[in-house]
Amino acid sequence: MDIKKILFRTSTIDVEKALPDGVVFCSRDGKILWVNDKASEIFETSKMHLLTSNISDFIENALNLITNSVILNKPVITKLTSRETYFDMTSKEIEEGYVLDFRDSIPAEEIPEKVEEPEDCTEINRNKNNFLLKLSNDLKSPLQSIVGFSQAMSDGLGGQISEQQEKYIKIIKKNSSELMYFVTKLLELSQTESSLPSPDCKTFDIQNLINSVIRFNEQLYKGKNIRWKVSLEEGTKSAVFTDEEMVKTVVQDILEVILKSVEMGEININISTPEADYIQTINLPEREYIQVAVSSNSLLLSENDLDSMFDPYKILDTTNRKNVLRAMVLSSVKNILQALGGYIWIESKILKNTSFNIILPVDKK
Protein backbone atom coordinates (compact mmCIF):
# COMPACT_ATOMS: atom_id res chain seq x y z
CA MET A 1 0.00 0.00 0.00
CA ASP A 2 1.43 3.34 -1.05
CA ILE A 3 0.39 5.62 1.82
CA LYS A 4 1.61 8.77 0.11
CA LYS A 5 -0.69 8.11 -2.85
CA ILE A 6 -3.59 7.59 -0.47
CA LEU A 7 -2.84 10.84 1.33
CA PHE A 8 -2.48 12.89 -1.79
CA ARG A 9 -5.53 11.53 -3.57
CA THR A 10 -7.98 12.38 -0.78
CA SER A 11 -9.76 15.70 -0.88
CA THR A 12 -10.48 15.65 2.85
CA ILE A 13 -7.10 16.97 3.95
CA ASP A 14 -4.59 19.45 2.59
CA VAL A 15 -1.52 17.20 2.81
CA GLU A 16 0.99 19.77 1.63
CA LYS A 17 -0.13 22.13 4.37
CA ALA A 18 -0.26 19.36 6.98
CA LEU A 19 3.16 17.82 6.39
CA PRO A 20 5.05 20.44 8.48
CA ASP A 21 2.95 19.20 11.41
CA GLY A 22 3.10 15.72 12.86
CA VAL A 23 1.11 13.52 10.47
CA VAL A 24 0.07 9.94 11.22
CA PHE A 25 -1.94 7.60 9.02
CA CYS A 26 -3.60 4.75 10.93
CA SER A 27 -6.15 2.02 10.29
CA ARG A 28 -9.59 2.07 11.89
CA ASP A 29 -8.38 0.00 14.82
CA GLY A 30 -5.49 2.42 15.41
CA LYS A 31 -2.61 0.48 13.82
CA ILE A 32 -0.02 3.02 12.62
CA LEU A 33 0.70 2.61 8.89
CA TRP A 34 2.67 5.76 8.00
CA VAL A 35 4.23 8.73 9.80
CA ASN A 36 6.34 11.71 8.87
CA ASP A 37 9.54 12.91 10.58
CA LYS A 38 7.70 15.50 12.69
CA ALA A 39 5.45 12.79 14.21
CA SER A 40 8.55 10.83 15.14
CA GLU A 41 9.86 13.93 16.94
CA ILE A 42 6.56 14.50 18.76
CA PHE A 43 6.38 10.95 20.09
CA GLU A 44 10.14 10.87 20.77
CA THR A 45 10.69 7.52 19.13
CA SER A 46 11.82 6.09 15.81
CA LYS A 47 9.65 5.64 12.75
CA MET A 48 10.42 1.92 12.92
CA HIS A 49 8.93 1.73 16.42
CA LEU A 50 5.89 3.77 15.41
CA LEU A 51 5.18 1.51 12.45
CA THR A 52 4.97 -1.52 14.75
CA SER A 53 2.64 0.21 17.22
CA ASN A 54 -0.91 1.40 17.74
CA ILE A 55 -1.82 5.08 18.12
CA SER A 56 -3.38 4.19 21.49
CA ASP A 57 0.13 3.37 22.71
CA PHE A 58 1.03 7.06 22.42
CA ILE A 59 -2.22 9.00 22.88
CA GLU A 60 -4.61 8.57 25.82
CA ASN A 61 -8.14 7.59 24.81
CA ALA A 62 -6.98 7.81 21.20
CA LEU A 63 -9.79 6.12 19.27
CA ASN A 64 -12.55 8.02 21.07
CA LEU A 65 -10.78 11.33 20.44
CA ILE A 66 -10.28 10.45 16.77
CA THR A 67 -14.02 9.82 16.49
CA ASN A 68 -14.74 13.11 18.27
CA SER A 69 -12.59 15.07 15.85
CA VAL A 70 -14.16 13.41 12.80
CA ILE A 71 -17.73 14.05 13.98
CA LEU A 72 -17.11 17.65 15.06
CA ASN A 73 -14.76 18.40 12.17
CA LYS A 74 -12.43 20.33 14.45
CA PRO A 75 -9.31 19.75 16.58
CA VAL A 76 -9.46 18.04 19.96
CA ILE A 77 -6.93 18.18 22.78
CA THR A 78 -4.86 15.02 23.16
CA LYS A 79 -2.42 13.96 25.87
CA LEU A 80 0.65 11.82 25.31
CA THR A 81 0.80 8.63 27.38
CA SER A 82 4.50 9.05 28.05
CA ARG A 83 4.55 12.57 29.51
CA GLU A 84 2.46 15.60 30.47
CA THR A 85 2.36 17.06 26.97
CA TYR A 86 -0.76 18.02 25.03
CA PHE A 87 -1.43 18.65 21.33
CA ASP A 88 -4.26 19.80 19.13
CA MET A 89 -5.18 16.83 16.95
CA THR A 90 -7.34 16.99 13.84
CA SER A 91 -8.64 13.71 12.45
CA LYS A 92 -9.90 13.19 8.91
CA GLU A 93 -11.55 9.95 7.85
CA ILE A 94 -10.69 8.31 4.55
CA GLU A 95 -11.58 4.89 3.19
CA GLU A 96 -8.46 3.16 4.52
CA GLY A 97 -8.57 4.70 8.02
CA TYR A 98 -7.68 8.09 9.48
CA VAL A 99 -5.19 10.86 8.80
CA LEU A 100 -4.18 12.52 12.07
CA ASP A 101 -2.58 15.96 12.21
CA PHE A 102 -0.78 17.03 15.41
CA ARG A 103 0.15 20.66 15.97
CA ASP A 104 0.62 23.32 18.64
CA SER A 105 2.12 21.64 21.68
CA ILE A 106 0.29 22.93 24.78
CA PRO A 107 2.16 23.13 28.12
CA ALA A 108 0.51 21.13 30.91
CA GLU A 109 0.11 24.23 33.08
CA GLU A 110 -2.08 25.84 30.40
CA ILE A 111 -4.53 22.95 30.36
CA PRO A 112 -7.57 23.53 32.60
CA GLU A 113 -7.99 21.13 35.51
CA LYS A 114 -10.90 19.51 33.76
CA VAL A 115 -10.84 19.52 29.98
CA GLU A 116 -14.42 19.58 28.80
CA GLU A 117 -14.89 16.79 26.34
CA PRO A 118 -16.87 17.66 23.22
CA GLU A 119 -20.22 16.02 22.68
CA ASP A 120 -19.59 12.98 20.55
CA CYS A 121 -20.87 9.51 19.85
CA THR A 122 -19.32 8.13 23.06
CA GLU A 123 -22.42 8.94 25.12
CA ILE A 124 -24.65 7.71 22.31
CA ASN A 125 -22.73 4.43 22.17
CA ARG A 126 -22.93 4.05 25.93
CA ASN A 127 -26.70 4.62 25.86
CA LYS A 128 -27.04 2.16 22.98
CA ASN A 129 -25.11 -0.49 24.88
CA ASN A 130 -27.14 0.05 28.05
CA PHE A 131 -30.32 -0.17 25.97
CA LEU A 132 -29.24 -3.55 24.57
CA LEU A 133 -28.28 -4.85 28.00
CA LYS A 134 -31.65 -3.87 29.48
CA LEU A 135 -33.37 -5.70 26.62
CA SER A 136 -31.21 -8.82 27.00
CA ASN A 137 -34.09 -10.94 28.37
CA ASP A 138 -36.41 -9.72 25.61
CA LEU A 139 -33.81 -10.75 23.03
CA LYS A 140 -32.76 -14.08 24.54
CA SER A 141 -35.98 -15.50 26.02
CA PRO A 142 -37.82 -16.01 22.68
CA LEU A 143 -34.71 -17.64 21.21
CA GLN A 144 -34.34 -19.93 24.22
CA SER A 145 -37.97 -21.00 23.74
CA ILE A 146 -37.42 -21.75 20.05
CA VAL A 147 -34.29 -23.80 20.80
CA GLY A 148 -35.95 -25.63 23.70
CA PHE A 149 -39.24 -26.46 21.98
CA SER A 150 -37.55 -27.50 18.74
CA GLN A 151 -35.36 -29.89 20.73
CA ALA A 152 -38.43 -31.22 22.56
CA MET A 153 -40.25 -31.81 19.25
CA SER A 154 -37.18 -33.52 17.83
CA ASP A 155 -37.17 -35.80 20.90
CA GLY A 156 -40.81 -36.71 20.26
CA LEU A 157 -42.30 -34.97 23.31
CA GLY A 158 -44.95 -33.26 21.17
CA GLY A 159 -46.00 -36.43 19.40
CA GLN A 160 -44.74 -38.37 16.43
CA ILE A 161 -43.37 -36.30 13.55
CA SER A 162 -42.56 -37.20 9.99
CA GLU A 163 -39.07 -37.47 8.57
CA GLN A 164 -39.59 -34.23 6.62
CA GLN A 165 -40.85 -32.40 9.72
CA GLU A 166 -37.82 -33.60 11.71
CA LYS A 167 -35.53 -32.24 8.99
CA TYR A 168 -37.19 -28.81 9.24
CA ILE A 169 -37.07 -28.87 13.05
CA LYS A 170 -33.33 -29.58 12.98
CA ILE A 171 -32.83 -26.58 10.67
CA ILE A 172 -34.88 -24.39 13.04
CA LYS A 173 -32.88 -25.59 16.06
CA LYS A 174 -29.52 -25.09 14.31
CA ASN A 175 -30.32 -21.57 13.08
CA SER A 176 -31.90 -20.45 16.35
CA SER A 177 -28.93 -21.83 18.33
CA GLU A 178 -26.52 -19.90 16.10
CA LEU A 179 -28.62 -16.75 16.48
CA MET A 180 -28.67 -17.25 20.27
CA TYR A 181 -24.87 -17.46 20.29
CA PHE A 182 -24.61 -14.32 18.15
CA VAL A 183 -26.97 -12.36 20.43
CA THR A 184 -25.08 -13.56 23.51
CA LYS A 185 -21.77 -12.35 22.09
CA LEU A 186 -23.31 -9.05 20.98
CA LEU A 187 -24.55 -8.48 24.53
CA GLU A 188 -21.13 -9.41 25.94
CA LEU A 189 -19.52 -6.85 23.62
CA SER A 190 -22.06 -4.22 24.72
CA GLN A 191 -21.25 -5.02 28.35
CA THR A 192 -17.49 -4.63 27.86
CA GLU A 193 -17.97 -1.39 25.92
CA SER A 194 -20.42 0.03 28.43
CA SER A 195 -19.03 -0.69 31.88
CA LEU A 196 -17.07 -3.58 33.31
CA PRO A 197 -17.09 -4.20 37.06
CA SER A 198 -13.87 -3.44 38.91
CA PRO A 199 -11.60 -6.50 38.80
CA ASP A 200 -12.03 -8.78 41.81
CA CYS A 201 -8.40 -9.79 42.18
CA LYS A 202 -7.22 -12.88 44.00
CA THR A 203 -4.39 -15.39 43.66
CA PHE A 204 -5.02 -18.49 41.53
CA ASP A 205 -3.11 -20.95 39.32
CA ILE A 206 -3.46 -19.95 35.68
CA GLN A 207 -2.30 -23.34 34.37
CA ASN A 208 -5.08 -25.07 36.32
CA LEU A 209 -7.57 -22.50 35.02
CA ILE A 210 -6.55 -23.18 31.40
CA ASN A 211 -6.86 -26.95 31.85
CA SER A 212 -10.34 -26.52 33.35
CA VAL A 213 -11.46 -24.37 30.40
CA ILE A 214 -10.18 -27.03 27.98
CA ARG A 215 -12.25 -29.69 29.79
CA PHE A 216 -15.29 -27.38 29.75
CA ASN A 217 -15.04 -27.13 25.94
CA GLU A 218 -14.98 -30.88 25.36
CA GLN A 219 -18.27 -30.76 23.41
CA LEU A 220 -16.78 -28.21 21.00
CA TYR A 221 -13.87 -30.46 20.01
CA LYS A 222 -15.46 -33.86 20.58
CA GLY A 223 -15.26 -35.75 17.29
CA LYS A 224 -12.55 -33.44 15.97
CA ASN A 225 -8.95 -34.54 15.58
CA ILE A 226 -7.60 -31.97 18.06
CA ARG A 227 -4.41 -32.49 20.07
CA TRP A 228 -3.73 -30.31 23.14
CA LYS A 229 -0.47 -29.27 24.71
CA VAL A 230 -0.28 -26.97 27.75
CA SER A 231 3.23 -26.02 28.87
CA LEU A 232 4.76 -23.80 31.53
CA GLU A 233 8.11 -22.28 30.59
CA GLU A 234 10.87 -23.07 33.05
CA GLY A 235 11.25 -20.33 35.65
CA THR A 236 7.72 -18.97 35.11
CA LYS A 237 5.37 -18.99 38.11
CA SER A 238 1.83 -20.15 37.39
CA ALA A 239 0.35 -18.30 40.38
CA VAL A 240 -1.17 -14.95 39.36
CA PHE A 241 -3.02 -12.18 41.18
CA THR A 242 -5.87 -10.84 39.05
CA ASP A 243 -9.59 -11.40 38.36
CA GLU A 244 -10.05 -15.16 37.84
CA GLU A 245 -13.48 -14.95 36.19
CA MET A 246 -12.35 -12.29 33.70
CA VAL A 247 -9.28 -14.35 32.75
CA LYS A 248 -11.47 -17.45 32.39
CA THR A 249 -13.73 -15.52 30.00
CA VAL A 250 -10.70 -14.41 27.95
CA VAL A 251 -9.34 -17.96 27.64
CA GLN A 252 -12.81 -19.36 26.89
CA ASP A 253 -13.47 -16.83 24.14
CA ILE A 254 -10.08 -17.40 22.47
CA LEU A 255 -10.56 -21.18 22.50
CA GLU A 256 -14.08 -20.78 21.06
CA VAL A 257 -12.69 -18.66 18.20
CA ILE A 258 -10.17 -21.38 17.36
CA LEU A 259 -12.41 -24.43 17.88
CA LYS A 260 -15.21 -22.99 15.75
CA SER A 261 -12.74 -22.54 12.89
CA VAL A 262 -10.73 -25.79 12.84
CA GLU A 263 -11.49 -29.50 12.57
CA MET A 264 -8.05 -30.90 13.31
CA GLY A 265 -4.50 -30.08 14.31
CA GLU A 266 -2.60 -29.15 17.44
CA ILE A 267 -3.47 -26.37 19.86
CA ASN A 268 -0.50 -25.32 21.97
CA ILE A 269 -0.90 -23.13 25.05
CA ASN A 270 2.41 -21.87 26.36
CA ILE A 271 2.74 -19.88 29.60
CA SER A 272 5.90 -17.79 29.88
CA THR A 273 7.41 -14.57 31.18
CA PRO A 274 7.36 -11.80 28.54
CA GLU A 275 10.52 -9.93 27.60
CA ALA A 276 10.97 -6.69 29.55
CA ASP A 277 11.86 -4.87 26.31
CA TYR A 278 8.56 -5.86 24.77
CA ILE A 279 6.63 -4.59 27.81
CA GLN A 280 8.29 -1.20 27.26
CA THR A 281 7.54 -1.34 23.53
CA ILE A 282 3.78 -1.66 24.13
CA ASN A 283 3.94 1.01 26.85
CA LEU A 284 2.69 -1.10 29.76
CA PRO A 285 3.64 0.11 33.26
CA GLU A 286 6.63 -1.48 34.94
CA ARG A 287 5.14 -4.49 36.76
CA GLU A 288 5.42 -8.26 36.82
CA TYR A 289 3.61 -9.88 33.88
CA ILE A 290 2.81 -13.30 32.48
CA GLN A 291 2.31 -14.19 28.80
CA VAL A 292 -0.09 -16.83 27.51
CA ALA A 293 0.27 -17.83 23.84
CA VAL A 294 -2.54 -19.93 22.35
CA SER A 295 -1.52 -21.20 18.92
CA SER A 296 -3.15 -23.42 16.31
CA ASN A 297 -1.37 -24.95 13.34
CA SER A 298 -4.70 -25.33 11.50
CA LEU A 299 -6.01 -21.76 11.78
CA LEU A 300 -4.24 -19.67 9.16
CA LEU A 301 -5.14 -16.00 8.71
CA SER A 302 -4.38 -13.48 6.00
CA GLU A 303 -3.04 -9.97 6.53
CA ASN A 304 -6.51 -8.63 5.78
CA ASP A 305 -7.94 -10.83 8.52
CA LEU A 306 -5.42 -9.54 11.05
CA ASP A 307 -6.22 -5.90 10.26
CA SER A 308 -9.80 -6.25 11.49
CA MET A 309 -9.66 -9.03 14.10
CA PHE A 310 -10.65 -6.67 16.94
CA ASP A 311 -12.99 -4.35 15.04
CA PRO A 312 -16.46 -5.76 14.19
CA TYR A 313 -17.63 -2.31 13.05
CA LYS A 314 -14.90 -2.18 10.42
CA ILE A 315 -15.71 -5.66 9.09
CA LEU A 316 -19.29 -4.63 8.34
CA ASP A 317 -17.88 -2.36 5.63
CA THR A 318 -15.75 -5.09 4.04
CA THR A 319 -16.18 -8.34 2.16
CA ASN A 320 -15.25 -10.26 5.34
CA ARG A 321 -18.65 -9.82 7.02
CA LYS A 322 -18.79 -13.54 7.81
CA ASN A 323 -16.02 -12.86 10.35
CA VAL A 324 -17.97 -10.21 12.26
CA LEU A 325 -18.85 -12.67 15.05
CA ARG A 326 -15.19 -13.53 15.58
CA ALA A 327 -14.31 -9.84 15.73
CA MET A 328 -17.11 -9.22 18.27
CA VAL A 329 -15.70 -11.94 20.53
CA LEU A 330 -12.11 -10.71 20.22
CA SER A 331 -13.15 -7.09 20.75
CA SER A 332 -14.73 -8.15 24.05
CA VAL A 333 -11.50 -9.98 24.95
CA LYS A 334 -9.47 -6.86 24.21
CA ASN A 335 -11.76 -4.71 26.38
CA ILE A 336 -11.51 -7.15 29.29
CA LEU A 337 -7.72 -7.30 29.07
CA GLN A 338 -7.51 -3.51 29.01
CA ALA A 339 -9.61 -3.42 32.19
CA LEU A 340 -7.12 -5.85 33.76
CA GLY A 341 -4.13 -3.78 32.60
CA GLY A 342 -3.18 -6.36 29.99
CA TYR A 343 -2.64 -6.55 26.24
CA ILE A 344 -3.45 -8.85 23.30
CA TRP A 345 -2.08 -9.26 19.80
CA ILE A 346 -2.28 -11.91 17.08
CA GLU A 347 0.48 -13.31 14.90
CA SER A 348 -0.02 -15.54 11.87
CA LYS A 349 2.91 -17.29 10.22
CA ILE A 350 2.30 -18.51 6.69
CA LEU A 351 1.95 -22.31 6.54
CA LYS A 352 2.85 -22.58 10.25
CA ASN A 353 0.36 -21.32 12.82
CA THR A 354 -1.74 -18.53 14.23
CA SER A 355 -0.98 -17.40 17.76
CA PHE A 356 -3.20 -15.40 20.13
CA ASN A 357 -0.88 -13.75 22.64
CA ILE A 358 -2.08 -12.18 25.87
CA ILE A 359 -0.09 -10.39 28.54
CA LEU A 360 -1.44 -10.01 32.07
CA PRO A 361 -0.12 -8.31 35.20
CA VAL A 362 0.28 -10.95 37.90
CA ASP A 363 1.30 -8.96 40.98
CA LYS A 364 -0.46 -6.63 43.38
CA LYS A 365 -0.14 -2.95 42.46
In words, what does this structure look like?
The relative contact order is 0.09. β3 and β4 form a beta hairpin. Helix content is 44%, strand content 23%. α8 (163-194) packs parallel to α15 (324-339) and α11 (244-259) packs antiparallel against α15 (324-339). The strands form three sheets. A five-stranded antiparallel sheet has the order 2-1-5-4-3. It has a five-stranded mixed sheet with strand order 7-9-10-12-11, covered by helices on one side. The chain is built from 15 helices and twelve strands. It has three domains: 3-119, 2-Layer Sandwich (Beta-Lactamase), CATH 3.30.450; 122-194; 201-361, 2-Layer Sandwich (Heat Shock Protein 90). The protein has 365 residues and is an alpha+beta fold.
Could you provide a short overview of the structure?
It is built from 15 helices and twelve strands.
Radius of gyration: 23 Å
Query: Could you give the order of strands across the largest sheet?
Result: 2-1-5-4-3
The chain-level structural class is: alpha+beta
Q: Give the % helix.
A: 40-55%
CATH topology of the largest domain: Heat Shock Protein 90
Low-pLDDT sequence parts: 9-18, 114-120
Share in β-strands? 15-25%
Instruction: Give the beta-strand count.
Output: 12
Any idea what the CATH architecture of the largest domain is?
A: 2-Layer Sandwich
- Terminal CA distance: 43 Å
Shape: globular
| Main CATH class of the largest domain | Alpha Beta
Total DSSP helices: 15
- The CATH superfamily of the largest domain turns out to be Histidine kinase-like ATPase, C-terminal domain
SSE string, helices as H and strands as E: HHEEHHHEEEHHHEHHEEHEHEHHHEE
Could you describe the largest sheet, including whether it forms a barrel? 5 strands, antiparallel
How many distinct folded domains?
Answer: 3
Q: What number is the mean pLDDT? A: 82
